[in-house]
Write a structure and sequence with these properties.
The protein has 890 residues and is an alpha/beta fold. 31% of the residues lie in helices and 23% in strands.
Length: 890
């Protein structure tokens, strides 16, 4: 066997095999780990240098870098005043003495075999490509997860060459790359005029030189999600709207200059950027004026003239319905036509983009209620708004039903804007005798067979792959394409029923669900005792006493034979205010048994895991047997426009408690509910809110912002402190707290202003400081009385509806209104028209002037505002008592 002799002739030109280029800016908290990850690389035949280039850091990065350079010969350290990351990398490109240049950000890491692996891989194809990439991993604290883009490299072998015309959707936009150290006249530099996506643009220029990129399966780049990045800073359309378009326009121009066209690779790269922004609701600059927004749209549509319909339809990791939306919004008109067989199809620029061959019925709920199946869901199909008629036909053994269809909030499909026109259904099927029900959709006279998709709340046991349900008297099953439900008499098929039940138990154990099999035995043993009882369970949230607690305290006094339990979290036991009697700890076996046999589940919070002790799997396995009704009590009036979160297709409520005509119309018009889904009464805690004489106090209580939360971790929410203190939100609130003008006004008239942070932001309350005499920052432990305040100032907190009940004047202060409109929170508009109050105040000066004016007017309420307050809620002397009677009658 002959050993391969390394070719070292190039070392006459280069001093090292690899240069690791690390730009440094205010990286004192992580630069040591980054450098160590390079120094710890194991190399046997590869030499490397490390370039640390400090871009004018103002922290201790300079000292740390100098220490490393003084103790490690292969580390070179350079410093310059702040010029930006592109200038810094360009300086590194000129200083590099390695044959290949590896890029590494100052807060990221590489795995210990990376340097030698990428060097060997590049040597394999050094004459065929100028750039190499290797696997990217997302690092979240101590958790490492592969990036989805790794899976776009599908060739077998440790090192492979990819041509962008054969593999156009690689989308190499991040810095897990290595490039050739080219001669001066060939060298590609970072575009210093781009403050965003400069890395993706650089990568593209390098790829286009030979239209190839090398992929090395060895080596790992760990991208640290715990720190700020340019992507985070430029996520909002407020900051990125023009930069994004400039980046796209430069990509297009570069493609044309290099190849005479816009390669599909560049088209795909643009779509990749647009797609993730669309999914995160950070694409459209809704904060702009109509004129400016139309100008932005004109530029974006111009970009799409260079993107082919075929590219959009072929783009991986992009939802089909989002592709249709992009074509309609940015590209061209879609036409409804008929093919040679007379079937409906859709085309754009003479390219077929869809038909109804794969029409799907999505079932959100199939539940046994007495002798009926309650069936809810929606028809999922493209462009239903372009046809004249859509009907759901259910053909039974003895008759045929045509089901009424309505617009479904599921049309907010995998995003926070309406992008489709799905049709909702809600109806009952009798199961008191043997029958068969076949489901077809009729579109413009064409009868179409249906596929199905089951959500979690269906009787069929999807988690173990069984299509049968055995009840006391029936065998219920389904078939697909067309979707059909069959009802058979159990008494006629007893042997079959026994075989099915036996097989389902085997499937439970086979799928690792031994605990569920044990639970099955326990509930069967307890059934004779438990099914005779009426059981109500009341759920709030960990650390919170809300509507469920208020109703529990009221109902517990009733002598009506109903057994009631308040569900408490283990950490809340013994805490002040929490019940000590008739309590059950969340998630215990007792809780699971009570939940299974309960009559009513009352919950203040909507998430399944808030009120159910059963896993999704367990809930599915036992759903056909449970008869409980779930009543959503809310924890505040729904004000945020969030059909994708609170739409009927998402929730599993049998009743949705409402307190006002506004909520009724809102839920009927925007969220897909019917009148029979709604329970008209009032939130139990409204009884404790009274209009009374108020003190000379003002409350400022802003809500939270999703953009300032570290949620990428998948762990508990934590505050991104750096982003928080740099935000317009923080600046606006801080300006109020430290306004001497405001304090003088408050002191002159004997008023105080309290700041109460949202619970999610409470850990940041300490970041707000004031030494002014009449302004206070409340801590989590500071008690306050809602009825004391003469003015309530918020942004979009639903807490405002409590102050409507208290007849308190309300003002809206939005220091970051542009960011809100363009997606810095879970939603970007409100269902309630807040202009009926103060309008929106955007600066601290506006708010201070408003407060002074209102103090001088003694917070007098205009007649139209008083009428709005007075008529807002349903009028009951005792909300808890009214709700109790309605619950009993359910």
């Amino acid at each position: 066997m002959t050993n391969k002799i390394k070719n070292t002739s190039y070392l006459c030109e280069y001093q090292y095999d690899v240069t690791v280029l690390i730009p440094v800016y205010n990286a004192e908290n992580f630069i040591e780990n980054t450098i160590d990850s390079v120094l710890n690389n194991i190399v046997t035949h590869t030499t490397f240098e490390i370039l640390l280039i400090n871009d004018g850091s103002t922290d201790n990065s300079d000292t740390l870098c100098q220490n490393y350079a003084s103790t490690h010969e292969q580390i070179k350290y350079y410093y310059h005043d702040n010029r930006g990351v592109s200038y810094t990398r360009n300086r590194g490109l000129d200083l590099a003495q390695g044959k290949y240049i590896m890029f590494l950000d100052a807060d990221d890491l590489i795995e210990k075999h990376t340097i030698e692996s990428i060097f060997d891989s590049f040597e394999t194809y050094e004459n065929e490509a100028d750039i190499l990439t290797y696997p990217l991993y997302r690092k979240i604290q101590n958790k490492i997860m592969p990036h989805v883009r790794n899976y776009t490299f599908k060739k077998k072998g440790a090192t492979q060459l990819y041509n962008i015309y054969e593999f156009p959707f690689i989308n190499q936009s991040t810095m897990n790359i290595v490039v050739k150290n080219l001669t001066q006249n060939e060298k590609v530099y970072f575009d210093e005029s781009l403050h965003y996506a400069e890395d993706a643009f650089f990568n593209t220029q390098m790829i286009l030189k030979q239209q190839n990129i090398i992929y090395s399966q060895k080596g790992k780049y760990y991208y640290n999600l715990g720190h700020d990045s340019a992507v985070d800073h430029y996520k909002s359309p407020v900051n990125i709207k023009d930069m994004l378009l400039t980046y796209f326009e430069k990509l297009i121009a570069t493609g044309i200059d290099s190849t005479g066209e816009v390669p599909q690779y560049i088209q795909g790269l643009i779509l990749y950027e647009l797609n993730w922004r669309f999914l995160q609701n950070t694409l459209f600059p809704y904060h702009l004026t109509d004129t400016a927004y139309n100008h932005w749209m004109t530029r974006m549509k111009k970009v799409f003239t260079y993107i082919d319909i075929s590219t959009i339809m072929a783009k991986p990791i992009m939802d089909y319905y989002h592709k249709i939306f992009f074509i309609q919004t940015f590209k061209t008109q879609i036409n409804c036509e008929y093919d040679d067989h007379g079937e409906i199809m859709f085309t754009a620029d003479d390219t077929k983009i869809g038909d109804y061959a794969n029409l799907t019925l999505v079932f959100n709920k199939i539940k046994i209620e007495n002798n009926y199946l309650h069936v809810t869901g929606y028809i999922k199909a493209p462009l239903l708004d372009m046809v004249d008629e859509v009907r759901l036909k259910v053909t039974g053994t003895t008759d045929t039903q045509y089901i009424t269809l309505t617009e479904s909030p599921s049309s907010y499909y995998k995003t926070r804007m309406k992008i489709a026109s799905f049709k909702a259904f809600d109806f009952y099927l009798p199961i008191d005798q043997a029958a068969q029900f076949k489901f077809n959709v009729i579109i413009d006279g064409h009868t179409i067979d249906t596929h199905h998709w089951f959500d979690r709340n269906v009787i069929f046991k999807t988690f173990i792959g069984s299509k049968y349900v055995i009840t006391e008297t029936k065998i219920i099953s389904f078939e697909s394409n067309p979707f059909t439900i069959q009802i058979a008499e159990k008494s006629h098929h007893n042997k079959l029923a026994k075989r099915i039940l036996k097989y389902q138990k085997k499937l439970m154990v086979r799928n690792g669900q031994k605990t569920l099999a044990t639970f099955e035995k326990i509930k069967k043993y307890l059934k004779p005792l438990m099914q005779k009882q009426k059981i109500w369970l009341y759920n709030d949230r960990v650390g919170v006493l809300d509507n469920a607690h208020a109703q529990f305290q009221h109902d517990l006094k009733k002598k009506d034979g109903i057994k009631r339990y308040y569900i408490i979290r283990e950490e809340d036991k013994g805490n002040s205010g929490f019940p000590t009697e008739n309590i059950v700890v969340y998630g215990t076996l007792k809780h699971k048994i009570l939940y299974y046999f309960a009559t009513l589940i009352l919950t203040s919070f909507k998430e399944f895991t808030e009120y159910s002790p059963l896993s999704y799997r367990a809930n599915n396995l036992f759903y056909a047997e449970m008869t409980n009704k779930i009543v959503y009590l809310q924890h505040g009036v729904l004000n945020a426009h969030t059909p994708w979160l609170y739409g009927k297709h998402v929730t599993n409520f049998d009743k949705f408690l409402i307190s006002s005509p506004f909520e009724k119309q809102n839920l009927l018009n925007n969220y897909g509910y019917s009148s029979t889904d709604l329970l008209e009464s009032g939130m139990p805690r409204l009884d404790g809110i009274k209009a009374q004489h108020k003190k000379k106090k003002i409350l400022l209580a802003p809500s939270w912002r999703k953009s300032l939360i570290n949620e990428a971790t998948g762990l508990n929410r934590t505050i991104n402190t750096k982003a928080f203190v740099e935000s317009d939100f923080y600046a606006g609130i801080n300006a109020i707290l430290n306004s001497s003008t405001l304090n003088n006004v408050l002191r002159q008239y004997g008023y105080t202003l309290d700041l109460k942070m949202h619970p999610i932001f409470m850990e940041c309350a300490s970041l707000f400081e004031t030494e002014l005499s009449n302004i206070n920052v409340l801590s989590a432990d500071d008690a306050f009385e809602l009825n004391d305040y003469q003015l309530f100032i918020t942004d979009f907190s639903s807490y405002m509806f409590d102050f409507i009940k208290a007849k308190t004047k309300i003002a809206f202060f939005f220091p970051d209104y542009d960011y809100f409109l363009s997606g810095n929170h879970v939603y970007n508009k409100l269902d309630f028209d807040v202009s009926q109050f103060s309008g929106i105040l955007r600066t601290s000066d506006e708010l201070v002037a408003y407060i002074e004016t209102e103090i001088n007017k003694n917070f007098a309420m205009p007649a139209h505002t008083y009428d709005l307050y007075n008529d807002f809620y349903y009028k009951y002397d005792n909300y808890k008592l009214d709700l109790y009677h309605k619950l009993v009658n359910m």
